[in-house]
Write a structure and sequence with these properties.
This protein is mainly alpha-helical. It is 61% helix and 2% strand. It contains eleven helices and two strands; from the N terminus they run αααβααααααβαα. The relative contact order is 0.11.
């Protein structure tokens, strides 16, 4: 028994000495990964990454590059998948779901409210001398075809575009997610393909009507009197297109061109760099905008710009539709049959009517048209 106890004591002593030797040789767990530094030294300082595995500066620079969209290498065809993190995506999402959605809604609802208020106060603008029963051609068949090509395509683009911006807030609560998914998928194809018809319409409109939409001295008088929109018996002179219509024309041409360019960038992603050069030019005037943009950032800016210009154009076209239909008697016929009442022509476009008929056009003064 004494021999057994002695052997056990010897074994325990050997084990204790072995453990002490291991502890003495092995580094402390707290220092195992820090090259002898204390655990407290691992705390990040000045944005550095804990661990310091590659050194203070290199780690910080690597993660800063990753956060700003550093492009890595991937073997799959989609090279954009090599971007691990793109922090600007947070900013894009915040703008898209925040100010863009909110302000677009206010712009559109505000325009509808103003038109409703205008109709309640002013009512429908009548032909003051009454319809004559005789007509004159205002737009030929080619002009009307171009107008309706552009108008119909724009309405389809507006509806499908607004669905992308507001559909989830309106359609999902009422019809459900499945309905929204089907409508949105179909709307995407409509938006993509109809956009080319809109681009063709913009070009044709420019070619057909640019000569009639250059500024003249009569535009100042028309604008000074508000086009006669706000008072009866006020009829400033006007040519084929009055100043208000010229504003619509240039809004559609320039806004449509901007929509087309940004739309092409979205249709063919990562092929165009529109904003880096634009920002560089604006910086000449002290804008201080970023110019080192990644391709994903270019796409994000293109989407935001496309939506902003689209919302503004929809608001403008709502006013155009109102004046050309409910707001003014006889205006729709200009783009309907192409024939307008002679009294309407004398009241709204006396200078054009005088040239057309060889008269003075002074029998009636003018006011706006569609």
């Amino acid at each position: 028994m004494n021999a057994l106890r002695r052997n056990i004591a010897i074994c325990l002593s050997i084990a204790a000495l072995t453990l002490a030797a291991v502890i003495a040789v092995a580094p402390s767990p707290a220092l195992a990964q820090t090259d002898g530094r204390a655990v407290a030294d691992e705390a990040p300082v000045g944005g550095q990454v804990p661990g310091q595995s590659l050194g203070a500066n290199s780690d910080a620079e690597i993660w800063r590059a990753v956060r700003h969209g550093l492009q890595g290498n991937v073997s799959i065809p989609d090279k954009q998948a090599g971007i691990m993190i793109q922090s600007e995506g947070d900013n894009w999402r915040a703008w898209r779901n925040g100010p863009l959605t909110v302000y677009s809604a206010w712009i559109l609802l505000g325009m509808l409210g103003l038109l409703a208020l205008f109709f309640a106060v002013r009512g429908r603008i009548k032909i003051e001398s009454g319809p004559s029963g005789k007509t004159v051609e205002r737009f030929n068949s080619i002009e009307r075809a171009v107008h309706w090509l552009t108008a119909v395509s724009f309405v389809l683009l507006a509806i499908t575009g607004l669905n992308l911006l507001f559909g989830r807030h309106i359609l999902i609560p009422v019809f459900g997610k499945e309905f929204f998914a089907v409508v949105t998928l179909g709307g995407k194809y409509v938006h993509n393909y109809v956009s080319f018809a809109f681009m063709v319409g913009i070009v044709l409109m420019f070619v057909l009507w640019i000569r009639h939409n250059l500024p003249t001295r009569h535009d100042l008088a028309w604008l000074a009197k508000g086009g006669g929109l706000f008072a009866k018996g006020v009829h400033p002179p006007s040519e084929k297109f009055n100043a208000g219509q010229k504003v619509i024309f240039w809004s559609v041409v320039l806004g449509g061109a901007s929509l087309s360019v940004s739309g092409i960038a979205l249709l063919f992603p990562f092929q165009l760099s529109l904003f880096a050069g634009t920002f560089e030019f604006l910086n000449i005037f002290g804008a201080n905008l970023p110019t080192a943009l990644t391709q994903i950032q270019e796409m994000q800016y293109a989407q935001l710009w496309h939506a902003i210009v689209g919302a503004i154009m929809i608001a403008i076209i709502l006013a155009h539709i109102y004046i050309g239909s409910l707001g003014m008697e006889g205006a729709f016929a200009a783009m309907g049959s192409g024939q307008v009442d002679r009294n309407w022509a004398r009241e709204h476009h006396n200078l054009w009517y005088a040239k057309l008929t060889g008269g003075s056009g002074s029998g009636h003064h003018q006011q706006p048209a569609e």
